[in-house]
Every structure is written in C-alpha cells, then in structure tokens.
Amino acid sequence: MAIEASIDPTALDNRLQRAASCGDARDLALAYRLAADRADHAGRTDEAGFFLTHAYVWALVAGETPLAEPLARALRHQGRLD
C-alpha cells in the first residue's frame, strides 16, 4: 500500500465525516486507507490496523473487489484476517 503521510489530518477527518454523512462507502474505504497509511508511516501499527480494517469493510460494502483485495492481503500479512 502507498504511504500517504502528507495528507492534512483535518482534511482527512473532514473527508471521513463527509463520506459518512453521504453514505459513500467507496470514499469511506479510500479515506480509511489513507488514514491507515498515515498511521503506519508514523509507526502506529495498531491504529493503522484499525483503519485498515475499516477500509476493508467499507470496500466490501461498496462492492469494490479491486480495492478490497489488497486491503485483505495487508490485513492477512499483519495477522488481522484469516
């Protein structure tokens, strides 16, 4: 997964809130993936796993298999998904 540490945390929070209020599952998946990348880059692995799990779930809700597959691989690699 790409590391995106440069995104402004306030902008990311706003994006998550906007996507949630609109029910945009795909954008929620993408925003949570960005949050996971940011946390991972900062060395906060548990936080990254939390966000990665949310990204995966929202990708599944959105029916975005091409987005969900690499998220599932990353979760498996971390021992967070069987």
Topology overview:
Blueprint: H1 9-22, H2 25-41, H3 45-62, H4 65-77
Helix pairs in contact: 1-2, 2-3, 3-4
Short summary of the structure?
The protein contains four helices and no strands. With 82 residues, the chain is an all-alpha fold.
How can the largest sheet be summarized? none
The chain-level structural class is mainly alpha
Helix content: over 70%
- Nearest-angstrom radius of gyration? 12 Å
Which descriptor suits the 3D outline?
flat
Report the β-strand fraction as a percent range: under 5%
Q: How far is it from the N-terminal to the C-terminal residue, by CA?
A: 19 Å
- Total number of domains: 1
Number of H/I helices: 4
Enumerate the spans where pLDDT stays under 50 for 5 or more consecutive residues.
none
Based on DSSP secondary structure assignment, what is the total number of beta strands?
A: 0
Order of helices and strands: HHHH
Oligomeric state: single chain
- The average pLDDT score comes to 92
Question: Your description of this structure?
Answer:
By secondary structure, this protein is mainly alpha-helical. It has one domain. Helix content is 76%, strand content 0%. It has helices at residues 9-22, 25-41, 45-62, 65-77. The longest helix has 18 residues, at 45-62. The two termini are 19 Å apart.
Keywords:
mainly alpha, 82 residues
